[in-house]
Amino acid sequence: MNILISGGCKNGKSFFAQRKAKEMAESSGRPLYYIATMIPHDDEDHARIKRHISERAGWGFTTIEQGKNLADILDMPQIDKSGVFLMDSVTALLGNEMFDDEGNYVETAAEHVRESVLKFARETGSTVFVSDYIYGDADRYDELTECYRKSLACVDRALAAECDEVYEITYGMQERWK
User: Fold this and answer.
1) Three-class DSSP category at 108
2) Helix H or strand E segment including 162
3) Residues 8-11: contacts with CB under 8 Å, at least 24 apart
4) Would you give the end-to-end CA distance of the chain in angstroms?
5) SS3 95
6) Is 8 in contact with 131 (CB distance < 8 Å)?
7) Distance between CA 22 and CA 28 in Å, rounded?
């Protein structure tokens, strides 16, 4: 079962996703993987990573650091593709791929990420994807931010169509949409 979990920042998405992935792994006896996509750039990023590591300590996750090219994990010989994966997050993955190390915009990134997450979902069949709901407000932003928001919405729509369950987490409350 593939699951998409979306919602606002710091609303409990990651913890909810961890519980879902752990339940899936325990009920099937399969290995449990955590795909960490954030490439830290500042102290706030490092603090968030540290918090997420402490939150999943003792849960049985094997961590895979993969900030770009998600589908490359499928070719890693040490990975059991029949395992349960928690991919946190689509938002960070898109940002990492949409802007290169020099900060230049990569036009093909959204399509690449969309195809990569769909391939991953189809080949594993047991992935919990976490994304941020950042495209719902009415404010207008600069051109690159708008492009990023639209790109994330496109990727999330494709994932929602592919996933068996879709949840929105708002203020710690879960709404199941599919």
Assistant:
1) coil
2) helix 143-162
3) 8/132, 8/133, 8/169, 8/170, 8/171, 9/132, 11/169, 11/170, 11/171, 11/172
4) 12
5) helix
6) no
7) 10
How much of the chain exceeds pLDDT 70, in percent? 100
Q: Where does residue 17 rank: exposed (0-12), middle (13-18), buried (19+ CB within 10 A)? A: buried
Q: Is residue 177 pLDDT above 80, yes or no?
A: yes
pTM assigned to the model:
0.91
Q: What is the DSSP string of 40-64?
A: --SHHHHHHHHHHHHHHTTS-PEEE
Give the pLDDT of residue 119: 97
pLDDT value for 52:
79
Task: Report d(CA 138, CA 153) in Å as an integer.
Answer: 14
Nearest to 124 by CA among 165, 94, 80, 91: 80
